[in-house]
């Protein structure tokens, strides 16, 4: 079913006061998520933190089932994290990498992911960056030609933080599987705006965040780990009495499923909110969300391309709701501040990607990212502010 705009805006009280086009940064949570978090915090203050966790275990465990439905996996393959970067690093450090092994990645890699691979390189692991093809996405032919028996891991960013590109994640998964390499997919910017099926994607790990397109509380994320590979992985770098059990004076046993990648202490109110947020998105339908978000992104690009001096930067065979651009003669931070001052939230600055590895200068950009609750009028407002800024 198509998105009922009146309903989702009614569920998003802040949409009446601000044109929030910074959903790739952090989306506005729906009221049901806000209510869940506040209610849980009130219960902690009234009953006690440990006591409410013991009483409302089912409420807290909702996020595992919701995450499993979101990704088409089993709930015991889901671990709660505080963000996508933590999830990604927990996956990377569990892969049994040794000197001489290879990691293949693309140019869209997020900066914190790049740091992880640079650390692996310093430990003797070869990291190879696969170039983009002529369309702007990862070059599948080059990936196929490069992958070999030394390749232990393929790490791909599905949607870059600084582009509307959607990389061909399923095709990359098939190539990784053909070489028996682990496949780690960063779905930080795709979860909640693009359908994700870990079987179709053929990924072994998937990292995501809650605060962006899923509209969950900040400080929430998830790590998917395929259950069939758990016993082949290195133990998590950090474990405690929740992720493992004492089995003897000098030994311990890790938790059976992906919860071995969790720690005991977390924001339980945010955890409860994450489950509600995912269910809210699933009730709307991820396919319907993708259709709406893609439509808004395409409309905004078309509008921006008609303004002299505005340069739309997004490239790729498939584009999503992230729209990036520059304005001739105007610092992106100044453009961002002008838009925010007019009640239009966007991001701006030098959003980083793997290009830093080659020593290239990153082009500062402005990033707008409409979600399904945004309106055409809000896009028009952004365009009007830009036009006035250029005219001035």
Describe this structure in words.
The longest helix is centred in the C-terminal third of the chain and has 20 residues. The strands form 4 sheets. Strands 2-8-7-6-5-3-4 form a 7-stranded mixed β-sheet, with helices on both faces. It has a 4-stranded antiparallel β-sheet with strand order 11-12-15-14. It contains 14 helices and 15 strands. The protein has 392 residues and is an alpha/beta fold.
Tell me the fraction of residues in β-strands, as a range: 15-25%
- CATH architectural arrangement of the largest domain: 3-Layer(aba) Sandwich
Average pLDDT for all residues: 95
* Secondary structure category: alpha/beta
Care to count the β-strands?
15
The poorly predicted ranges are none
Biggest sheet, spatial arrangement of strands:
2-8-7-6-5-3-4
Helix content: 25-40%
CATH homologous superfamily annotation of the largest domain:
Type I PLP-dependent aspartate aminotransferase-like (Major domain)
Under CATH, the topology of the largest domain can be stated as: Aspartate Aminotransferase, domain 2
**Most strands sheet:** 7 strands, mixed
Number of contiguous helices: 14
